[in-house]
From TrEMBL:
UniProt name for this protein: Predicted protein
Domain Heme haloperoxidase family profile: 49-261
Record-annotated membrane-spanning stretches: none
Species of the source: Laccaria bicolor (strain S238N-H82 / ATCC MYA-4686) (Bicoloured deceiver)
Xref: InterPro entries: Chloroperoxidase (IPR000028), Chloroperoxidase-like_sf (IPR036851)
This protein's UniProt keywords: Heme, Iron, Metal-binding, Oxidoreductase, Peroxidase
Source species taxonomy: Eukaryota, Fungi, Dikarya, Basidiomycota, Agaricomycotina
Entry coiled-coil feature ranges: none
Pfam families registered for this protein in UniProt: Peroxidase_2
Cofactor(s) the protein needs: heme b
Molecular function via GO: metal ion binding; peroxidase activity
Family classification: Belongs to the chloroperoxidase family.
Oxidoreductase is among the record's keywords: yes
């Protein structure tokens, strides 16, 4: 058990947000990394050559986060997903995905706090991150996972959800490759929330869950560059495609501040109403009870 006083927390957060703002400004005036040179020299994945992918085996620890699981599947984090320090999370997320140092520190430190652990001294298994409560960030109506009410182990993607997500992309690049738009991501989140609300008797999403949901879904449009062909491998196998690199080329990476316009676009585009009636009539039909929506 590790306790940080609310004042120490507020000071630390203010420091991280100021640092983040500084990096956001420096990114604006510094040349971007060259294509094919985004992953730093010496870091696994340099030049698009990712360490061997090995699917998780029985007993390995995995969590609800495709980004972290992919790192374990490539051996960038321990392959068994166990005994990981918070500084290790910080540095591997930074090198693999080009999130800014402030972002990486914030999320790793947030996870430590959430789990009542010391950032500097304690270690966790990936599955520990799936704390499902008002204190945790694992929530219902995820893009790739069934709700914890139905599936206790959140370590594996639910392939029908992933397929539906991938099929929802409506954009195209100049070469005709399918791309996600923010509206696509909002639409899928809206449907997932309406369905979960109708089907899951324990459905719960507080404001922080909704914010986290819009933020982590926004990595589709930023770090992963919206590309369906890349996301297919990342979401189905939790594998980084050969030759892949983060689509963020700013030298100090994707900052908390620079992610916010995308998060807001996704969050404000979410509207469960078009899906609510169908979701509750499907739920009623499956349970054999009269449809409350009619
Ligand atoms: C220390 C770093 C991180 C922590 C603690 C973390 C934690 C989590 C957790 C708990 C969830 C589950 C939320 C839910 O219930 O849907 C999640 C989802 C997600 N994370 Fe992470 N994550 C981290 C880093 C990353 C990185 C580096 C990426 C991508 C580059 C990423 C991408 C995603 C995506 C796309 C989802 C949504 C999955 C879904 O909705 O099914 N995360 N993360």
């Amino acid at each position: 058990m590790f306790l940080v006083t609310p004042i120490a927390r507020a000071i630390l957060d203010a420091g991280v947000f100021s640092w983040d703002l500084g990096l956001t400004l420096i990114n604006l005036v510094t040349p971007r990394r060259k294509v094919d040179h985004v992953t730093p020299a010496g870091h696994p994945g340099e030049g698009g050559k990712w360490p061997e992918y090995i699917a998780p085996k029985e007993g390995d620890s995995r969590c609800s986060c495709p980004g972290l699981n992919a790192m374990a599947n490539h051996g960038i984090l321990p392959r068994d997903g166990k005994n990981i320090s918070f500084p290790e999370l910080y540095s591997t997320v930074r090198g693999t995905y080009n999130f800014s140092p402030s972002f990486c520190f914030y999320v790793a430190n947030f996870a430590a706090r959430m789990l009542n652990k010391s950032y500097g001294k304690d270690r966790i298994d990936l599955a520990d991150i799936d704390l499902h409560s008002d204190k945790g960030i694992e929530h219902d109506a995820s893009l790739t996972r069934e709700d914890i009410h139905f599936v206790k182990d959140q370590g594996k993607p639910h392939l029908p959800f992933v397929r539906e997500l991938l099929d929802a992309a409506s954009g195209k690049d100049t070469e005709g490759n399918m791309l996600f738009t923010a509206a696509d991501v909002s639409r899928v989140l809206s449907k997932r929330r309406a369905e979960s609300r109708a089907n899951n008797p324990e459905f719960h999403m507080n404001l922080s869950h909704r914010t986290f949901s819009s933020s982590n879904s926004s990595t589709i449009l930023t770090i992963f560059g919206s590309r369906v062909s890349d996301l297919e491998s990342i979401f189905i196998e939790e594998r980084l495609p050969e030759g892949w690199e983060s689509r963020i080329r700013e030298p100090f990476g994707l900052t908390i501040a620079s992610l916010q316009p995308t998060v807001l676009k996704v969050a404000f585009g979410i509207d469960e109403r078009p899906y609510a009636a169908e979701a509750s009539s499907t739920a009623a039909a499956e349970s054999g009870e009269p449809n409350p929506a009619t």
